[in-house]
Amino acid sequence: MTARIREFLKRRKDEGPCLVVDLDVVRENYLAFAKSLPDSKVFYAVKANPAPEILKLLTALGCCFDVASVNETQAVLEAGASPEERSDPGRSTALTQDEIDWLGKVLDSECMPDDAMGVEEIDGYVCALVMDANRDWARGMASAILGPAQKASVFESEGQAKRAARLVARMWNTIISRLDAGNAHRPILWGSEAPKAQRWAKGFIAGMQAARSKWWKPLQDEDVHMFLDPILGLALDEGEEEEGLLATPDTREEWIALLPTSIVGLYATTWLHHELQRERARQPVRSTKVDRNAPCPCGSGKKFKRCCGSAETSFH
C-alpha cells in the first residue's frame, strides 16, 4: 500500500468496501514492464479493471488493449485509443524483429542449398498454404519447409536447426491465428537484393503451385482478382508488364500497402467457397426420375413413355 492510498483511506468516510488504485503505481509498472520487453507490444486486458482513469492513462502511455466485448471496445475508444491498436490474435506467437533478423540471416547464408526459401518467401508461402481446404495437408507442407536445408545438413548445429524449425512453426501459427479471427496479417518483408516484396510474392505463388493445392482454380470472379493482382504484380521485375500489371516503383509501393487487405480478403473468399462446397456435398441426392405419363423433358410434346422413355430408339 502506497503512502497516497493510506492517506486517502484515513480521510475517507466509512461507506462500505471500495477499490483504491494509485495511478502513479500503474504508470511505473507499465513503464517498467514495457522497458523490459523492448521488442514487444504490451496489451492490457481491459476486463482486469475497465476504470476510465486507468484506460486514459495507459492510452497516453502508448499501451495496446485486449478487449473481449463490445462494451470494453467502446470504453477503450472513449479513452482515446486508436482502433488500429486492437488485440492481435497472433501476438503470442509472432516473431520479434530480432528473431526475424536471426532467421533471415541463417536462411540467406551461403551454405544454404539453392532451393531453400528465405524468411520472406516462407511468409508468403505459408499465406498461400493456409488458403487450402485440407488443413492437415497444408500443415504437413509447412512443416517440410526446412527440409532441403535439413537434408543437406547445413545448419551450424542441432540447436540452430531446432530453433529455425520452431520459428517457422510460429510463423504458421501466427498467420493461422490472425486469418482465422478475420484479422489482417502484415507480411514479413526482410531486406534482400530483389525488388521489395518480390520474394514474398514468389513464395506465395510457390504455395499456390504446391502439389495438390487447387484452392485458387475455381475462383475466377473479379473480387478474387482484386485481391490477387497486387501479389501477382509484386512478383514482376521492375518495368515488367503482364496481364495489365506494370511493375514500377510507385505501383510496387501501392501493392505492398494493399498486401494485408489482399491476404485477409483472399482467405475469407476462399474459405467461403470451401464452406459452400461442403454444404453442396451434404445436400441429399434428389431423384430425377420422370413420370412415364408426364411430358417428355426433351420438349418434343410427347409423353415421356412415348418418347425418351420408350424402349425404341428415336430421333427428335
How is the largest sheet built, in terms of strand order? Answer: 1-2
Q: Could you state the oligomeric state of the chains shown?
A: single chain
**CA gyration radius, whole angstroms:** 29 Å
Overall geometry comes to extended
Record field, number of beta strands: 4
Order of helices and strands: HHEHEHHHHHHHHEEH
Q: Strand fraction band?
A: under 5%
Biggest sheet, open or closed, and with what strands and sense?
Answer: 2 strands, parallel
Poorly predicted sequence stretches spanning 5 or more consecutive residues: 311-316
CATH topology term of the largest domain: Four Helix Bundle (Hemerythrin (Met), subunit A)
The CATH superfamily name of the largest domain is YgfB uncharacterised protein family PF03695
Could you say which structural class the secondary elements and strand pairing correspond to? mainly alpha
Which percent bin holds the helix content? Answer: 40-55%
What is the overall pLDDT average? 82
Count of individual domains: 2
- CATH-level-2 architecture of the largest domain: Up-down Bundle
CATH class of the largest domain: Mainly Alpha
Termini, distance in Å?
97 Å
Total helical elements = 12
